[in-house]
Amino acid sequence: MKEERFGQFPRTAVDFSIVVPFFNEVDNIKPLYESIVKVMDGLGHAYEMVFVDDGSRDGTYKILREISDRDERVALIRLRRNFGQTAALKAGFDYTHGEIIVSMDGDLQHDPTEIPGFIHKILEGYDIVSGWRVDRKDAWLTRRIPSRIANRIMAKLSRVELHDFGTTFKAYRREVVTELQLYGDLHRFIPALASWQGANIAEIPIRNIRRRNGKSNYNISRTLRVLLDLISVKFLLDYSTRPLHFFGFFGVLGTATGFLSGLFLLIKHFYYHVDIMDNHGPLLFLTVVLVISGIQFLSIGLLGEMLARTYYESQNKPIYAVREIRPPRVRRTERGAQVDPFEESAEAVRTWRAGAPN
Description:
Elements: E1 5-6, E2 9-10, E3 16-22, H1 29-41, E4 47-53, H2 60-70, E5 74-78, H3 85-94, E6 100-103, H4 115-123, E7 128-133, H5 140-158, E8 170-173, H6 174-177, H7 190-196, E9 201-206, H8 221-239, H9 243-270, H10 276-314, H11 346-355
Helix pairs in contact: 5-8, 9-10
């Protein structure tokens, strides 16, 4: 097979890619690697493992380097510093070659024996399969309650019926996940972002194993960051291509309310000869604030429309996602067009049309 350079790794025939980000997981690497190899070897398909060292400060990179040197199926990516889980996952996705990509944590809280279940579910026709930690082993007050609240809010606002957005244990079709641009902590919102592109999403129950080694990198402040990211995702899903619909609503509401209250004050002043400042001073100031804020919201919406068009047009970025294309089948004409019967090549169609007489 002809090799094609893809980043720093050659393009190879790979069915499955396992992406695992690591941050200070020195004691968990070897047991996880051995478990993944045991499970994947039993599937009888070509696979690769993409390990990402997210700026670890312990001996994580040394052990990953030893494994990579020994096993040619392991691709190792070392980031210059700790960029966070989203960036580490995105780096792993960018360097995968498999048609089905499975991501999981490097802390041994995800069981590699469940990987075949994800793959089987993908092969049923789904684009993304997300794990659901039915019986969580985390602390109730600091992990489980905030997570349950956040998951319910995310499911409601994103309109994606998942019980567990937070888990990294997911499987993706390559064409879905590689088209997504991830920033901040958006990795947990991949199903919501992919749903905008029409992805079919499923959920399967998984085990939640207690961490045996190392220290969790989770803290309660992450819940607040998740809620802030949720606002961003909600806006991107609903209004990224039409921001004026969002800001314009508040702009029109504020301007119209200010106009009506101003009309009321004018009638009071000129018809009933009421001193506005003495009798309706607060309402006058509110009217001015409503009109000005309404105009500002409308202006922000118009600027958002200009930025959205610049973003999509400058990159030739489509505002739609295509699942499949079936090009037209062109018959040979009596004039002898140079296209074979029922040719299904779009390039042949363009050539035929360019050479056809008017």
